Amino acid sequence: MNGERTALVTGGNRGLGLEISRQLAHAGARVILGSRDLEKGKAAAKAISGRGVVVEARQLDMASQDSIRECVAAVTSHYQRIDILVNNAGVMIDDESSDPIHELDVVRETMETNVYGPLLLAELVIPIMKTRRYGRIVNLSSGMGSLTGMGAGYVAYRMSKAGINVVTRVLAAETMGMGILINSVDPGWARTDMGGKGANRTVEKGAETPVWLSLLPDSGPTGGFFHDKTQIEW
Ligand SMILES: NC(=O)c1ccc[n+]([C@@H]2O[C@H](COP(=O)([O-])OP(=O)(O)OC[C@H]3O[C@@H](n4cnc5c(N)ncnc54)[C@H](OP(=O)(O)O)[C@@H]3O)[C@@H](O)[C@H]2O)c1
User: Fold this and answer.
1) What is the residue with the minimal CA distance to atom 36 of ligand 1?
2) Each residue of 49-62: b (16+ CB within 10 Å) or e?
3) Spatial separation of the C-alpha atoms in residues 138 and 16, rounded to whole Å
4) What's the gap in Å between 171 CA and the centre of ligand 1?
5) How many beta carbons lie within 10 A of that of residue 101, not counting itself?
6) Is 172 in contact with 182 (CB distance < 8 Å)?
7) CA of 5 to the centre of ligand 1 (A)
8) Residue 3 confidence (pLDDT)
9) Nearest atom of ligand 1 to the alpha carbon of 61
10) How far apart are CA 156 and CA 135, in angstroms?
11) Which atom of ligand 1 is nearest to the CA of 16?
C-alpha cells in the first residue's frame, strides 16, 4: 500500500464491518474500528489484531451528531489524516409488512443511522481528504435501494439505501478531480445478523467489493454503484 493509509470503518464490531476492517488491516491500512459500544469495539478490534496487524477501536454512534464530530476530531488530532471512510453501519428495522402510517418513527430512526449520520461523517472527512488530495469513501448501500429493481415492503430501509446513493452521487460530483473517489456498493446477501443464516454468501465475499472500492487506484471510478466489482444500475 502507498504509505500507511488510515481507514475509518463504521459499525466495525460485527458483520460486514468487522470483516471489512480485518481485510483492510491485512492489506496494510491502519484501521480505526468505529463502534457505538466501545467495549464491543475493543473486543472486536482485539479479535482481528495480531501478527503485526493493529486495529484500534473508537466510540462512534452514527445516530449521534456529537459522537460523529468527536470521533473525527479525535482521529484527526491523533493521526492528522483519514484516507479511507467506509460508511458501513446500518439498521434494518422494518420488514415486508411495514406500515409507515403508524411507524413513521421507524423511517426516521432508519434514516438517522443509514443516511444522515453517513452524510455528516463524509462532510466532516472530505476537507481532511482534500488537504492530501487523496480519499476513498465507500457507502454500504443495497440492491433494495436500487430504483431500477425497487419492490414492495421495507420502505424505511429501501428509502435509506436509495438516500445513501444520493449522498454518493452528490459528494462524488462535488469532489470530482480532487483525488477523492466516492462510490456505493451492494455487498450482496451476506450471512450476518442482518442478512440471516439463509443468506447466500459469506461475510468474506460480502466484504470483497467494499474493500476493493476502499483501495481503488487513483484512476478508479467515482460516483458509481457496484456489486461484485461491476457497475450496476441505480
Ligand atoms: N448482510 C446483508 O445481506 C446486506 C445486504 C445489503 C446491504 N447490507 C448493508 O451492509 C451494512 C452492514 O450490514 P451487516 O449485514 O453487517 O449488518 P449487521 O450484522 O446487522 O451489523 C450492523 C452493524 O452496524 C452497527 N450499527 C447499527 N446502528 C449503529 C449506530 N447507530 N451507530 C454505529 N453503529 C451502528 C451495528 O452495531 P451494534 O452491534 O452496536 O448494533 C453493527 O456493527 C449495512 O449498512 C447493511 O444495510 C447488508
Assistant:
1) 11
2) beeebebbbbbbbb
3) 13
4) 22
5) 5
6) yes
7) 24
8) 57
9) 32
10) 30
11) 16
Note the helical H segments in the chain.
15-26, 38-48, 65-79, 104-111, 117-132, 155-174, 203-214
**DSSP 3-state of 135:** strand
Give the residue numbers marked as catalytic.
157
pLDDT under 70: residue ranges of the chain:
1-3
Domains along the chain with CATH numbers: 6-231 (3.40.50.720)
**94 near 125, Cβ under 8 Å?**
no
- pLDDT tens-place string over residues 37-50: 999 999 999 999 99
From 88, 138, 139, 160, the mutation candidate for ligand 1 (largest count of ligand atoms within 8 A of CB) is 88
Report in angstroms the alpha-carbon separations of 117 from 80, 153, 184, 230. Answer: 22, 23, 15, 27
Residue that is written with C-alpha cell 424505511 in the block: 156
Give CA separation, 102 vs 60, 106, 107, 215, in Å: 30, 9, 10, 43
What lines the ligand 1 site, CB under 6 Å?
A: 10-11, 13-17, 36-37, 40, 60-63, 88-91, 113, 140, 142, 187, 189-190, 192-195, 199
pTM of the model: 0.98
Residue 145 CA: distances (Å) to CA of 98, 152, 180, 184: 16, 11, 24, 11
Q: Report the separation in Å between the CA atom of 174 and the middle of ligand 1, taken as the mean of its atom positions.
A: 27
**What is the chain's alpha carbon radius of gyration, rounded to the nearest angstrom?**
16
